[in-house]
Structures are given as structure tokens and as C-alpha cells.
Amino acid sequence: MLFRKAHSPFINANTRVHSIMYQVLAALIPGTLASIYFFGWGILFNLIIATGVCLLSEAAVLKLRARPVKPTLKDGSTLITACLLALALPPLVPWWLTVIASIFAIVVAKQLYGGLGFNLFNPAMVGYVVVMVSFPREMTYWTAPLGAMDQWLSFSDVFNIIFHSAVPGQASIDSITMATPMDAIKTQVALEHDISSTRQSPVYGPLFGVIAGKGWEWINLLFLAGGLWLIKMKTIDWRIPVSFLLTLLLISNFFAVSDYATYPSALFHLLSGGTMLCAFFIATDPISASTTPRGRWIYGAGIGVLTYTIRTWGGYPDGIAFAVVFMNITVPLLDYYTRPKTYGDLEVD
Amino acid sequence: MEPTHKPGHFHGGLRLNYHKELSNQNAIVAGKAQSRYVVPVQQHIGAPGEIIVETGQCVLKGQMLTRPTKLISAPVHAPVSGRVVDIGKQAVPHPSGMPADCIVIENDFQEQWVERNPVGDRYNQMNSHELRNIVRDAGIVGLGGAVFPSAIKQTETNIHTLIINGVECEPYITCDDRLMRERAREILSGADIIAHIIKARECIIAIEDNKPEAIAAIQAAADEDGTGFFRVQSIPTIYPSGSEKQLITLLTGKEVPINGLPADIDVLCQNVGTAYAIHKAVHEDEPLISRIVTFTGKGIKQTQNLEVLIGTSIADCAAQCGGYSDDASCLIMGGPMMGYTLSSDQLPVVKACNCLLVTTSDEIHPANTEAHLPCIRCGRCVDVCPAKLLPQQIYWYASTHNFERATEYHLFDCIECGCCTYVCPSQIPLVQYYRSAKSEIWTLEAERKKSNHARERHEARERRLQQQKREREENLRKKREMLNKKKGGPAESEIDQKKTAIEAALARVKQKKESLSVAPKNVDHLSADQQRQIKEADQRRRANGKESDE
Ligand code: SF4
Ligand code: SF4
Known about the structure:
The complex is a heterodimer of chains A (349) and B (550). Chain A has 349 residues and is mainly α. Chain A has helices spanning 17-39, 41-64, 70-74, 77-88, 95-111, 123-134, 155-164, 181-190, 195-200, 216-232, 239-258, 266-270, 275-282, 293-313, 320-337.
């Protein structure tokens, strides 16, 4: 009798790339819902625009490169890029900004490097950095969260702002937008108002919740929950989030203890801005992160240090995207110098 | 450096579905006598022995058919009495699928043995050398699948710890399990002989905790022995804990050094089947002419643990197992993690054959060779790699033919266990990339050695010519100097001395540079095991090449 030829191993685990990606997407849901709840229709618009543009541009480039389109779109990685980007953008950014960021993310940061698995940088963060640097003004179009505002801006208002740059009642856009709590503290500290007075000021006070920004706390906690689930499912590596959060906690605590009037508390940092989104969903993107165990510790810690530095002393409201992109550059070096000791390698370092 | 791991742990590994229940209730059954046996000359690592029988010659059961002429070699013996009907190339079970020299014997069904003189309990008074010769002449090789000649492994004496490997960590395989359950006393007797040869001070019998009956049986035999010399150690069921290096680390907390041997850390590891074979050789003067083979998988009608004579056709064994089921698809020799497929069952059972797994197509899912996704650097392979490598990096360099880097990332320390491929979400057939990279590097190495040899010859000639030239010049200079002296001019020798010093320095630098640039690291001092892997990989590659040519 004749038999089929094959190569060992003949059995394998059931984990597949797309199942990993869809788990990550699922874990994003609670935090995303919270973002929509607190910041309204704008987030939803961002999500829809980013998803559409990312998928389209991915398909277009694949067509041009004469690569199969369907399997790549189905692997879920494009959806993750789109979601991360949309969640990082302010809710009232004009539509073209989201489009530009999405195209940059997929076409330049991902496909020009060779597509899934070959991109040096985190695509979503590249898209974010590009629009942050090019359109700093639009990137401040945050609103106050629900709770500091009585109700959402209406669907048509948001639609008009995003697609026609038309603010209701002929008012200027600045009358609608609002600084994020982190930004508020930074600008106020620069004006020599200490943190507690900012928190009590009539303008900024309503923005703050129990620990960090109103809404932001919940969003971050829910991303944390999603992330912990991913770790429990062994979908993502635990080292990067742990080292990133730990580093951020230690540094921010160090400064906060040294001068609590100027430096926000460690908990504030952990639950503000994109901290948890970064810890579990952005920094853990395996392709652009370090791939060795020790390298991952350093990589996470590096992002922590840079994030804190940019947040505290840099010119941008949140430092996460820059920190991630910068650490992406160091990855080849990190990987090389943090190779694990092979079995039986008894040499002392 | 002292232990890098605490005992009870090695890096990585997998928890698998074992499917042992398919065959572990089947007691060992003797294989049916057949009329024809095909005995391959080489069934071990090392050089084949010299054939010492002729076509047409009558042989007795247990008679030596080949005699080892090289150090690392093993003889093969006649499994039955009868007549040698053919000596020549026959298909054998090997990854390469290439035919090899075999001796074909027709059974006369007389069961006439050669004269046997068992040593019996007198082995206690024999020295290591004499006992090793018995092991060697019995053709005993590692029966866990590695088939390295046991006598060679037992060369070093005063090894502190003898480990008897009853782990059997690959799914499906149960031949060692059954052997331990049914012949525990004989295994310990064999272990005692090995311990005597290497003058071991302790003996650990390691068994995975998914084989409680085997543990109980060996424990009972150890208790009966009563000397306290044997220690039964139950170990966690994690693939590949039965791999020699991993098992040693698990039990002792020490790692076998790269390019080293277990003996370097005072350990020797032998399979339970090997211990049993040594018992038979010493107490019954029976050479290795049979082994236990697990026939299992959903593709075979009746799973069995058959004790078959070496040289029996796999097809005949399968017939004894009721034949194949209709949806049988692959015939795998070995386990599902490290075994290889055979394309036909018209092949003889050999010493390395611990398991024949017949699978249905829904039972196995080999990695998809044609269409795998790119590596997403998820690191799952790193977490499971028992050799503590970075499989994704080696893959990256191997697939881009950057062999120097691949070697630098310890490609040659990969034990091809398959753990990385098992977990890879992109379904990259990583192990296959490693095998072919290893063999390509090996080919390049061989070529380099050849051309090095040619270059050395060329350089030697150049040196000789230069030497002659220098001598001529020296003579000339001396003559001139003498002339000058006669004339009363300045001596040239001082200037010359400086010149030669500089030249010599330059030459030294050049030499150093050359010696640095020659060899890629890591491939020069390969252990016998690694060389074997490379050789196998090489043959596999050639075979693959053939496949794709067709
Ligand atoms: S498991 Fe596969 S995809 Fe993940 S890092 Fe290893 S080779 Fe790459
Ligand atoms: S096959 Fe090699 S690289 Fe892969 S897990 Fe086993 S030892 Fe590591």
C-alpha cells in the first residue's frame, strides 16, 4: 500500500494568526464602548472612516503588488490598526485627517515595508504621529466627556463638524472643544497653577473624576480589563505591559512624591490618555515589538520612560505614539543584544 | 557555572494530546514468523559493518552478518536461521527514501540458534572492557530512536549517575510503557550491567507520570532488588522530556554543555529498551535481533505492541494487526512530533523503529508547507523551545539564506523537536527550514573544506618558492657583503635586519587575518549526534529535491 508524504510535526496547536487578531479585537470592545459613551458620535465616525480607508487602501496596495487580497484582509490585522488609530484620534477631527492617518498607516508603515510581519513600525502609531506633527491644531479637538457635559453633541452636529468643518450656531470650534485633563494640568502648571487648584477651577474642575480624567478613568480601566483577559488567554505577551506600566508607575510616583503640586500622581498617569490602550494593545503588537524575552522588558520600560518624559516635558499632549515609534527603531538592536542563552551555553556573560 | 536550572524543570516544552490509550492496553505480542527477512546493513549512527556472509550461505539464528570495522559502528545479526538469498540494495525506512545495502534471509523455520554462551551473573567479575565488547558484538544501539552504538556511549567510566530513560514523551508510542510494565526486572538487570560498565554510583529510572502502571512495575522491581541502588523518578508529562538533554536537565538541574556530552556533567542516559537488550545479551547471549514496535493510530484496524524480528516487513506486521482502515492516509515511523512518513509499507522493521503510526487524514494536521503566513514575531516559539533558541530569528535567517547569522543564532543546537512548529500561529514549517538550512550549510562546509585543502596545498607551494627565493637573495647578499667588506664599504646587514623585522610583522598580521576569516563559528566541533542530524537532513533534502523534480 502507498501512503501520503508529509513532514513532521504532524500535529499542531489550533492558534492561528486571525484567531489571535480577533481575540485582540474582542478585547478592545469594552474600552471602545466606554470611549463612545463618554465622547459621543465622533469616536464612531473615526472608527468607521478609519476602518473603511484602511481596508480599502490595503486592498488597493495588495492589488498593485499582485498579492492575494482576501486572506490578508481576513487576518484581522488591518482592522486592529484601524481601531487603534481611531481610538487614539480626538473625536472631532475632520474626516480628511483620519483618512490621511489611515493611508499612512497602511500604505507607508505597513505595505511599503512588505506587509504583515515585515513592518518595522506600529502602523497605527505612524499614522497618528504623521497627523500629530502635520496638524497639531486639529489634534486638540477633544470634547469634554459626558458628565462634564450634560449630553452628547447631536449626531448632525458632529457630522457637520467632521465633514463640513461647520460648527453649530456659527460659533468657533474652540467653543466646543476642550483640553484633555492631562493637557489641562500641563498648561496650567506652566502658568504656575498647581494641580489641586486646576482640579478645583470652574473651567477644568468638571473634567476630573475620582483619580484621573472623568471618563478617561473608565475607558482605561476597561482597556485594562480587556488586556488582562488577553494575557489570561495567552494571546499577548505579559512582559511588555507589565514592564511598561511598572516603569510608568515608578517614574511618575517618584516625581509626584517629590512635588505633588506639579506632578500628577502615578495613578493619574496609569488611568489617563492612552496608557492602557498602549500597554495591552499598541506596545504588544508583536511585529513591531522586540521578540526576545529580555528585549521585551527593555522595550516596555523604554516606552514607559519616553511616555512620561514627553507627557511631562514635551510639547505634545500625550507621548505614547512617539514613545512607541521611537522604541520600534531600537527593536533590531534590542533583539540582537538580548538573545537568550542557548541550552548548554555555559559561558558566563 | 553551576546548575542553571533547578531540578524538575527545563525550558519550554508542550502539553500534548497523547492518544496513548489507543495502544497502551495491548500487551506485547510476538510477531508472526515470516518466510523472508530483509536486514539492512546500517541501522545505526556510524559506519556500516563489513558484510561477512555470502549469497547462498546458510546462517543460524543470531549469527553475525556484518562485522564492525570502524570505532563507531555496530554489527547486525540473522533474525532467523535460514539461507542468505540476496545481498544488495533494497528499500529501507529512511527519511531520504533511498535504497541501502541489505542482506535478505529466507527463513528455514528451524529456529536453529548459533552456539550461545551467556555470561549470566558472572558479569560482576568482568571488567568494563569485556562487557562493552559483549554489548558491541550484540549490535546494541540506542533503542529510543537515536540508534547510537551503546558500547561507544559507555566508554567513559566513573560516571556518577546512570539515567534509564523510560519517559516515552512522544504521543501514541507505548512500546516502552509495555516493556516496563511487563519486563521490569529485566530492565533493571540491564541497568545494573550498564552501571557496572560505567561504574555508576546511582541509577535513576525516569518515567512520565502519565504511565502510573509502568512506574508501579519498575518500583516493585526496584523494591524486590532491595539494594536501594535504583531510584524510580516520576516526571511531569511535558514533551520533549524524553529528549536526552532535557531529561538530564530535568533530573539533575544541569545542562549538557554545547558541543559536549552528558559524560561531561557526570551522567549517562540509556533507554529502557536498550537496558533490556543488554540484559538479553549478557544473560541469554542473544544479540539485538528483535524489538517491540507500537502499531497504532486510527488508520490501523487493531493496535498492537508487537515484538518483531528485525527485518520483518512492515506490511506483514500490519497484516497481523488486521490491516489498514479504509481512510488510512499516512504511515509514520516514530511519533507525530519527530517521526517521518514512509511512502510504502514494503520496508523492513529496523532497530530504530519504535512506532509505526498509521493515521487517517482527520487525525493529523501537518503544517501547511505551501501557504503559510509571514512570521508575526509573536514569540510563542521562543516560549516553547527546549533548546532555548529564538526559532523565529533562525527562521528569518534560514529563509533568507543568511546562514552565518542562522548559525550564530545556534541553528545547530536545534534538536528538531518540532515544538516551535506546533505552536506557530502562522503555520510556518519551521523545522523543515532548519533541516534544509543545516544540510545546505553542511554542504557548503564540505566544499569549503575541500577548497581549503586545495588552497593550503597552493600556499605551501608558494611558501616553498618564496623560501627558495629568500635563500637565493640571502646568498647573493652575503656575497655582496663580502665584496663590500673587502672594499671597506658599509655593511648592508643592519638595514636588512630592520626590513626583515617589518616584513615578518606584516606576515604575522596577514596570517592572523586569514585564520580569522576562514570558518563560520560553531560548525567545526559538532557532536556525533549533530553530525548525524546533518547527514539525515542532507539525505532528506536530496530526497525532497527529487520529489520536486518529478
Ligand atoms: S511562533 Fe511563528 S509567528 Fe510566532 S514568532 Fe515564532 S515563527 Fe513567528
Ligand atoms: S525544533 Fe529546534 S527551534 Fe524548534 S522548538 Fe525544537 S529545538 Fe527549538
